[in-house]
Amino acid sequence: MSTLEIRRVAIVGAGSIGVAFAVVFARAGWPVRLFDPDAARRDAALGEIAQRLNELARFGLLDETVDAVAARVQMTTSVETAVAGADLVQECAPERVDVKRALFAQFDAAAPATAIFASASSALTASTFVGDLPGRHRCVIAHPGNPPYLIPVIEIVPAPFTASHVTERTMQLFRDAGLQPVLVSKEVEGFVFNRLQGAVLREAYCLVRDGVATVEDIDTVMRDGLGLRWSVIGPFETVDLNTRGGITSHAQKMGPAYERMGAERGQHDPWTPELVGKVAKARRAVVPLEQWEERVAWRDRALMALARHRKSAVSGSDS
């Protein structure tokens, strides 16, 4: 099946992520069947989808009318009805092994043989709940940022038994839906998104516990400091551009301090020369050192544009 033919989507679970995924796929022009075992969620979900679409339209982020996009989403009353004829089944159920295991067994029994089964799991790997499933080869994790219609990154995490063509089709599917898939090459709890987020949260909690800073001040450092840069460039490029000589120079100057900070928290993960070399090689392939000054200037212009936007947004809210 060509990736261009993958257009019918079933979403099982109509909580916040299920509703958000419905917006993503319907905005991409694809028919969506949505199911939730809770009748109250089934009653509320379509209205929530319309509300989110109206907000997107208000900010100029819809290419069609709200009614045209909303009309693509159909609420169903059973898993079997939702997954019938689906090319992709996107599971958005609670983070429980027993719940996911039971749902994926239903998918495997009722969905077409060519359907991909994707879980929006935030931390559980596919191996923990579909390892014994007959159709386990077509199962994969597709963990989104929240909400995915505004945060486009989505982590695609195959299990060791996931067929390579399923992984490739899943990556292309989400690209076609307007998201930015990232392949996570090994099954690790929390994947990349929540491991990075978890590292920040663990330190933030420790700083509050130890009386170093208040909750409000830590949020300020992230929002008005690190977060500003990270909304333009990632942590590796940040330190690469912060130090003349690039990331190798940064590691030489700051690596010992970061190693001591980690040891203080009981974590000993030194930046070995081999590891730094691997990261530096990746950075130099993107930005050679002779282009470092140019890229620093680009970063500053990007931050200026962001500062201008934040200033105008604040001014607009006061008017």
From TrEMBL:
Q: Which residues form a coiled coil?
A: none
- What GO terms are given for molecular function? L-gulonate 3-dehydrogenase activity; NAD+ binding
Ranges for domain 3-hydroxyacyl-CoA dehydrogenase NAD binding: 9-187
Note the InterPro entries from the entry. 3-OHacyl-CoA_DH_CS, 3-OHacyl-CoA_DH_NAD-bd, 3HC_DH_C, 6-PGluconate_DH-like_C_sf, 6PGD_dom2, NAD(P)-bd_dom_sf
Q: Where is the 3-hydroxyacyl-CoA dehydrogenase C-terminal domain?
A: 190-257
Against Gene3D superfamilies, the record matches this protein to: N-(1-d-carboxylethyl)-l-norvaline Dehydrogenase, domain 2, NAD(P)-binding Rossmann-like Domain
Q: Which UniProt keywords apply?
A: Oxidoreductase
Keyword Signal tagged: no
Q: Name one GO biological process term.
A: fatty acid metabolic process
Q: Does the keyword Oxidoreductase apply?
A: yes
Q: Which family does it belong to?
A: Belongs to the 3-hydroxyacyl-CoA dehydrogenase family.
- Record protein name field: 3-hydroxyacyl-CoA dehydrogenase
Q: Which organism is it from?
A: Caballeronia mineralivorans PML1(12)
